[in-house]
Specification:
With 255 residues, the protein is α/β, with parallel strands linked by helices. The chain has a single domain (2-234), classed as Rossmann fold. The chain has helices at 9-26, 40-54, 80-87, 109-122, 159-165, 184-188, 203-211; strands spanning 2-6, 31-34, 62-65, 67-69, 99-100, 128-131, 153-156, 178-181, 192-197, 229-234. α7 (203-211) links the parallel β9 and β10.
């Protein structure tokens, strides 16, 4: 696990985008796992800029999103389909045939979850999975107590997560109670992980994930067991870390 601490949110976003762009240039048909939430927005903005002004090509990329609310249609302005379309998909040249976001309106959720797992496998697995982190240490919607070997499934959202999300909805009763999410085991199958976090509100979660014990009560702590995990945070999110970490990432070139 490589932990990189940047001065602020803008710099962490650019650092994360630099890593994604490096992987894409090396493998044009990259299978990219995507996350929603406020933290990845800067990363998606920078990747969109690199596509527009530097010719970063997404035409052969396949994407798989981590999660989606159950019971909210893709057209809803708080659905993750809508979020990704507005903040990333419409800004780059992804082929719509190879964009995958969980179907929160699926009639048979269990059947869909099995299909999603099989679909990921059919593309050879995820090459690089982007992750955010919740204030309680959840990744995707794998809440504290989730099995560390779990697969894509429906999850009941905790009161803490629903509280974090209610600012996006007009009424408390509109906040979804369930979500389809990739499991921790699914996430760990990715060849590389890229976790981004910003702000003091994420400081304890980052501390527990990076330096705390491996525990299902902090699902993100599982990244300690991944052989190729990158954690890019700003100084506020890193404020409770005790170790010494680097401030930049560069690809290794062997001459």
């Amino acid at each position: 696990m490589l932990v990189i601490i940047k001065k602020d949110y803008e710099k962490l976003s650019k650092e994360a985008a630099k890593l994604v762009a490096d992987r894409l240039k090396k493998k044009p048909n990259l299978v990219l796992g995507l996350a929603t939430g406020s933290t990845p927005l800067g990363l998606y903005k920078e990747l969109s800029r690199m596509h527009k002004y530097e010719g970063l090509d997404f035409s052969k990329v396949t994407t798989f999103n981590l999660d989606e609310y159950v019971g909210i249609p893709p057209s809803h302005d708080q659905s993750y389909h809508y979020f990704m379309q507005q903040n990333f998909f419409k800004n780059v040249n992804l082929d719509p045939r190879y964009i995958h976001v969980p179907q929160g309106m699926a009639k048979d959720v269990d059947q869909f979850c099995n299909w999603y797992e099989d679909r990921i496998k059919s593309f050879g697995g995820i090459d690089l999975q982007i992750l955010g982190i919740g204030s309680n240490g959840h990744i995707a919607f794998n809440e504290p107590g989730s099995s560390l070997g779990s697969r894509t499934r429906i999850k009941t959202l905790t009161p803490a997560t629903r509280k974090d999300n209610k600012r996006f909805f007009k009424k408390n009763e509109e906040v979804p109670k369930y979500a389809i999410t990739m499991g921790v085991g699914t996430i760990m199958d990715a060849k590389e992980l890229l976790l981004v976090a910003s702000g003091k509100g994420k400081a304890e979660a980052i501390h527990q994930s990076v330096e705390g014990p491996l525990t299902a009560m902090c699902p993100a702590s599982i990244i300690q067991m991944h052989k190729e995990a990158f954690v890019i945070v700003d100084k506020d999110a890193a404020s409770k870390l005790q170790g010494t970490y680097v401030d930049s990432w560069e690809p290794i070139t062997i001459k």
